[in-house]
Design brief:
This protein is of the alpha+beta class and 180 residues long. 36% of the residues lie in helices and 23% in strands. Helix 3 packs antiparallel against helix 4 (167-178). 21% of the residues are buried.
Length: 180
């Protein structure tokens, strides 16, 4: 698969994107998961893209009595500790979640957390799997040792000495490797 291949397209149910006083415009009606990013759409228009290269991990925060939003959090190191504990009378947790553009937020509404948490948990698991695959591929690329021009030249000299290639072929490869 290429990086532009959509792995999964997820339609967001209307009940998980309710408009609230806090989140008037915070909606995605579809989320597409690619090999290197997640894209949020509203009314068919791309509105947000989260590139995996910019993040250190994916977290999931359940909606509860303090925050009516279930959240998939694209971790940057800065936003990973943004979890208040205890009563949230001023809706601080909700406001923090809405202001943080590194969060994909699903609205549960008051006292209807379970269905939204279940849905958001599945979305988070799908995104986390794509993220882990992306990071693993990046790690594999870093582990591949770079072959120097000198190493390549030695290999071709050995092929010349063994009679596998001609002097002309060796000279052409030497010029190519040395940029002559």
């Amino acid at each position: 698969m290429g990086v532009d291949t959509c792995i999964k397209s997820i339609a967001i149910p209307a009940e998980q994107r309710k408009k609230t006083t806090l989140a008037k415009n915070l909606q995605y009606d579809r989320v597409d998961i690619y090999e290197n990013r997640v894209v949020g759409y509203f009314d068919g228009q791309q509105t947000m893209t989260w590139f995996f290269r910019d993040y250190t991990g994916i977290d999931f925060i359940k909606a509860n009595m303090n925050s009516q939003f279930a959240q998939v959090v694209f971790l940057t190191g800065i936003n990973s500790k943004n979890r208040a504990i205890g009563p949230d009378l001023m809706a601080t947790q909700n406001l923090n979640a809405i202001k943080d553009t590194n969060r994909l937020v699903f609205c549960s509404g008051m006292f209807s957390f379970n269905k939204t948490n279940d849905f958001a948990s599945v979305v988070a698991a799908d995104i986390r799997a794509a993220f882990e695959n992306y990071k693993n591929r990046a790690d594999e690329k870093e582990e591949t040792p770079a072959v120097s021009a000198a190493d390549e030249l030695k290999k071709f000299k050995s092929l010349l000495d063994d009679g596998v290639i001609s002097q002309e072929e060796f000279d052409a490869k030497k010029k190519q490797l040395l940029g002559i």
